């Protein structure tokens, strides 16, 4: 899957993250979509470093990698931006 495909899957994963991780986003839905797309790209990088061949094409493994990366980065973003953390 190319870069634009991973960004697109990351945006969809961010929408799924909104359903899985309910609550308020510190920056709104736009920020959540950007963080989700970044998480998907980081997951692609991690999959490549770990030798994950499933992350190369468009399919279930790549969508799972992107979704996990998106959810992880969204959760970290919410923790970092929570009141009282800075």
Structure, briefly:
With 86 residues, the chain is mainly α. It has helices spanning 3-20, 28-49, 60-81.
Question: What would you say this structure looks like, in words?
Answer:
The protein is elongated and about 40 Å long. The chain contains three helices and no strands. The model has no long low-confidence stretch (mean pLDDT 75). Helix 1 (3-20) crosses helix 2, helix 1 (3-20) packs across helix 3 and helix 2 crosses helix 3 (60-81). The protein has helices at residues 3-20, 28-49, 60-81. The chain has one domain. The protein is mostly helical and 86 residues long. It is 72% helix and 0% strand. This is Putative transglycosylase associated protein. The chain crosses the membrane at residues 27-50, 62-81. Keywords: Membrane, Transmembrane, Transmembrane helix.
Largest sheet: none
Range of helix content = over 70%
Low-confidence stretches: none
The portion of residues forming beta strands comes to under 5%
SSE string: HHH
User: How large is the radius of gyration?
Assistant: 13 Å
Total of helices: 3
Shape: elongated
**Number of E-state strands:** 0
Structural class comes to: mainly alpha
Number of domains: 1
Mean pLDDT: 75
- Termini, distance in Å? 38 Å
